[in-house]
Amino acid sequence: MEQLIQNNLASMGWFRPELVLTCGSIALFLLDLIWRRSALRRPLLTAAAVATLALAGVFLAQQPSASIAIFNGLLASDAFATFFKWLFLAAGLLTVLIVAQGDEFPNARVGEFYALLMTVVLGMFLMASATNLLTMYLGIELVSMVSYVLAGLRRRDRKATEASLKYVIYGSVASGVMLFGMSYLYGLLGTADVLAFGPKIAALAATTGAAAAATKLALVVAVVFVSSGVGYKIASVPWHMWCPDVYEGAPTSFTAFLSVGPKAAGFALALRLFWSAFTGPAGADGLAASIAGIPWPAVIGVLSAVTMTLGNLTALVQNNLKRLLAYSSIAHAGYTLMGLAAVSMVGMQGVMLYMLIYLIMNLGAFLVVIVVAQATGSESILDYRGLARRHPLAAVAFAIFLFSLTGLPPFAGFTGKWYLFYAVIERAAAPGGFWYGVLAVVAALNTAVALYYYARIIKAMFLDAPYVETPVEPKVGYQLMLGGFSVAVLVFGIWWTPIVDWSQRSLSMLHG
After folding, report:
1. What pLDDT is stored for residue 294 in this prediction?
2. Which of 101, 160, 213, 376 is the most buried (most CB within 10 A)?
3. What interhelical angle do 476-494 and 392-406 show, nearest 10?
4. Count of domains in the chain?
5. Is 44 part of a structural domain of the chain?
């Protein structure tokens, strides 16, 4: 960090986007009460939510490019955090636009949804900026607790209630385990500042004797427990079990947001936390050499391989599109973990690029699910048969998103996977990098498996006779969004220079 601002009041100048989201959330709750009887309640609340996100974006654009520690080092204002904050604002704005045109939330609940959504976006901002164990935990909990409410916001829907309950149970366990691990880390290292972890872990590794061995074992346990909290947020194995049921039961518009926003926030937190530990004085594998000889990047590589394999194999047998996309989301968490396992600048860049591209293609895929569900009342793959005849735009857009999720050129998903594969193969070429080569082969095989179940949906849309002749007539706004998502996926699949350059500039915090 170039500068440490000791004065909390002075730090507020770099905290303006978060202040806007905080005030906007409170204002939306109040406006929801004021406009309760207004006939224009929905459009007015939508405008207020969009204005909140837009104003936060204005202040975010004015953030300085220098890396600055604010609130005595609890948070960071830097290009890395700004990259993810733009992603969160985009996810929030697109979700507001989807909800505004849909019928999942009646007018009586839409203001509450918008207000809570602003709070989740605020929590994700904190997760991206957190450089202290305390603020990391607060950010995760803010996102998690509000997400529990949003998942079950349709109180008369039994599936939504079940999803919310399961989300609470799994989330509470993961949160408790993570907090216990954080307390161990603080006790062992004597600091909650993650930027100081590398040197302290290396110093602890240099100690010898029976007491030192016990300390190193405790450090292993602490890191595993903290990893459990992060793994829960990104839905990686073995912390993925909440994902399919929550995705299926929650309102689809919120499921779409949940699949991209909190997942990207989890990876932003993981990059900042684990990169600081990996790049201690011992070198690129500093953490691996420091924790009882356990090769920690290899552990993440194993999690990556298991996560993508379980997600893809389980998705093969799904007939409900929301559950299929849930297991697909688990598989994509596995792909993205390859970048973290590579412990390199290219790997970090690959994670950032993939999260940005995943936002576009996965929100687009869920938007098609919303469109078809509104027309047929079903999420079964059977109701996608003959979709190309009933609504060609929705079918073509869905095909583009699915091919992109597979990682085929010339779609944007190929760009993201290229950087992840390149990071792993680059490490495989180095001495002792054989297991990185194995990870790349596993990822390539999983891509082939994913192509099968994505192609199954495409076959149903373009080759099969309609199961029902229900016409699909999405609203004009939905059609414009589908067109925009499709164009973005195609453009970034061919001309990826702008987003690659942006992600590269945003990695400046890792040089600090």
Report:
1. 67
2. 160
3. 30
4. 1
5. no
